Amino acid sequence: MTLSTGGRVGLAGAAVVGVAFGMARYAYGLTLPGIRQDLELSELVLGLIAGATFAGYLAGLLLAGPLAARRGSRAPTTLGGTCGAAGAVIVTVAQSPLPLAVGAVLAGSAGGWVWASYSDIVTRTVPPRQQPRTLAVITTGTSGGLVLLGGLAVLAAVGSWRLVWGGIALAAVAAAVVNLGLVPRAGPAPHPDGQRGASSLTRTLKVPAAYSVVYFAVIVIYFTYAADVLTRDLPAAAVPALYAAIGVTGTVGVATGAVARRVGSLRVAALCLVTVAAALALLGLAGDSLAATAASACVFGVGYMTGSAVLAVWTAELVPERAGAAFTGCLIVGAVSSVAAPVLAGAVIPGLGLEALLVLTAAVSLLSGVALWLHGASAGGTATETGP
To answer: Which of 165, 191, 217 is the last residue of a domain?
Structure first.
């Protein structure tokens, strides 16, 4: 069976994004206990490396656009795949802090290079009717990566944390080869229309950007503290099982494009915030229950993957001629929010407690989702009506 252009681009994008986001993005935190014990690093050094991985991601986001403008929209995805593979190899063999940091930063940068770049690739190479589904498939590739990461974590539990990074390196190479074989070359991306274009883009993206602030903040709170909750009262295997459950249930994100076409991207985004709120509340109120945490992971997987997929679909609908720039702008806003949220959480946990923080975060997500839904109702519920 011959794949359509959308099918080829979707398959390649899902593979690359799955490795960059579903695996490389979360592998450092997952392997942190093993790294700490094996390399005997201080918490300060480990924390600095964790922060540096974010800097790599942000650098990839900021530099992907200029590279696409010079070399074509496929170039950042090729470079991102290369960074993911090279970084994972370096971490696998690292015996000291410096190579560990270099490898982790390279691997962390992969997500910044590749994710938004596919928005440009899709809008320039895929027929319009196939674009929402293709974007949703690409973003939902993260689910497959999380499932694979959970499997590698089980192997690491009986072997070494280096097996996780070695597996990521092999997966990154395979994904890069698939990307080169299936994604068509495209010429340099068109230059934006100067300041006028930038100001118009900002006005158009006010609502998606506001959604990004809340969405990425509540997502990072869940991923940051879920393992802490689980390891208090549940078996060690609960953590890799959590990642796998999120990945499996997150595959429903492939339907995001079709659902957004029916009810509007804005309403889908609102429902995702409500869904994540339910997952956070379950974790905060019943984190010592295996059934409750399993339900929380499954609910979170749906909200997490659909929530990121709808952002790609939404920005491409609003600004089809500059889809990559629009998506990148929202991701940068979300990245800043992702940094601020754990800092704020760390400041309030001593007074509130972790469970109370999770419930409070759930309330913020719920209220934001309701506000977004009401905004959509007042605007008529369509994605394009959130523009200028």
So the answer is: 191
**Helix (H) / strand (E) containing 22:** none
Give the domain CATH number at 313.
Answer: 1.20.1250.20
Rounded CA-CA distance 139/50 in Å is: 24
Distance CA 181, CA 219 (A): 33
- Tallying the residues shown for the chain, one arrives at 388
What is the value of pTM for the model shown? 0.79
Distance separating alpha carbons of residues 19 and 22, to the nearest angstrom: 6
> Tokens for 212?
């990004």
How far apart (Å, rounded) are the C-alpha atoms in residues 69 and 50? 30
Q: What's the pLDDT at 385? A: 40
Q: Compute the C-alpha angle 314/280/157, nearest 5°.
A: 100
Give me the pLDDT at residue 1, please: 53
Pair (249, 314) in one structural domain: yes
Profile the chain (388 residues) by mean pLDDT over runs of 10 residues. 79 92 82 83 78 82 88 90 95 93 92 85 86 86 87 81 94 93 75 54 87 93 81 76 88 88 93 97 88 92 93 89 83 84 82 91 96 81 40
Q: Do 271 and 305 form a contact (C-beta atoms < 8 A)?
A: no
SS3 content of the chain, % helix, strand, coil (to 5): 90, 0, 10
Tell me phi and psi for residue 188, to 5 degrees: -55, 140
Same domain (yes/no): 163, 184: yes
Res 195: pLDDT = 46
Could you say which of 174, 191, 208 is where a domain stops? Answer: 191
Compute CA distances 130 → 63, 96, 209, 385, whole Å: 28, 47, 25, 22
- The values of phi and psi at residue 300, to 5°, are -65, -40
Answer yes or no: do 161 and 35 share one domain: yes
